[in-house]
Structure formats: structure tokens, C-alpha cells
Amino acid sequence: MLRWIGSAPLTYAWLTVLLGTTILQHQLTGRVLHTLLVHESTNLQQLAKDPLHVLFASLLWIDGKYWTPYVVLFTLFLAPAERWLGQIRWLTVGLTAHIVATYISEGVLYQEIEHHLAPERLVHARDIGVSYFLLGVMGVLTYHIAAPWRWGYVAALVALFGVMLIIKPDFTAIGHFSAIVIGTCFEPLARCRDGPTVNPATIRAKPGRSGARDRPR
């Protein structure tokens, strides 16, 4: 377990920080918590006032009450990506997706407010969380999966978040879909990495082959 955690230090350090801020969320009252999270959000007002602060601070909070689902998501996607890409490339992909998807989604929201298609109160909307970073990394993981499985993986991502975008085309859904697209644009960076790709067929075949060797002749 310690070896697994040590092989992806940024992933699990971040997860530890999120545990601390989640505990803090549970200690604060509703009004105080709301004020804090709005202040740390990448909404239009805060992006105009202090973009560097909120782009970083928004990554330190989860958008919800429960921390445990993030343990699963970080372990399934962020940790393998950190091991495969290395820390600098991992940060490059995740932060690019986080920043660019934020500005795309908030830019669309700004235009909607300007044209009276969205209420002006959304200038102060709560917009925190790790999802854009996570989805950007999930996008680039496409190239760590062997063909033809990678096409099924990316098709599932696009279909899931594309349907969510169609059903509820708000700024969050736009940001999620954008983050996936941004992650898949990092193919040149992914090609620089050595090592075998993940092949689900080979993983499934291993128990069968082992079992064949154990059978008496």
C-alpha cells in the first residue's frame, strides 16, 4: 500500500489535502461555508478580481459532502496517469484542462448573461472542485490504453458527458466536456512516454493462461 501511494505522491498528497478541507466543510455552518466556497470559486466575479488565487484555491475543495468517492477516482485515474506521465507532464495536462475549461465555461456563461439568457446572479455562482483537472487527465489516458480498446474508452467518455451536456447544457457541463477534449489534445506529450500500454484483453487472459498451466496433463 505504501509503495503504491509513494509511486504517485502528488495524487495522494492532493487527496490528503482534500480530506482536510472536507472535514472543515463539515465543521462550518451553512451560511459561512457558502460564503467561503463562493469566495474560493472560479466564478466570473472572482476570476475578474483574483484569477490566480481562485484557479488554485478551487482545486482544494470538493463539490459535495463525501470524500470517499474521490479516493476511488484518484486511484483509478490520477495515480496511474501520474506514474505513466511523470509529475511535470501530469501537472501540465491537468492544470491546462482546469484553466482552459474554466475560461471556456465561464466565457459561455458571461455571453449568456450579457444576452439575458442566464440570470445575472450566476456571476457569483459556486464553482469549485477537481473535475476539470480529473477529466483532462482521463482524456489523455486514452493514449495509455491499447487499440482498439482506447477508442471504446474515449467513446464512452464523450458519450457520457456529451449526453449530460445535451440534457443540461449549463456552464458546468460545458466545462466537463471541454476538459475531456483538452486532455485528448495532449497526444504528442503522451507519445513521449515509454512503457507498454494497458491492454484489457491481456489482463483478462492472464488468469486463464495461469489456470491452463495448473491443470494436470
TrEMBL record:
The keyword Phosphoprotein does not apply. The keyword Glycoprotein does not apply. It comes from Mycobacterium botniense. It holds the Pfam family Rhomboid_2. Keywords: Membrane, Transmembrane, Transmembrane helix. It comes from the Bacteria. This is Transmembrane protein. The chain crosses the membrane at residues 12-33, 54-78, 90-109, 129-145, 151-167.
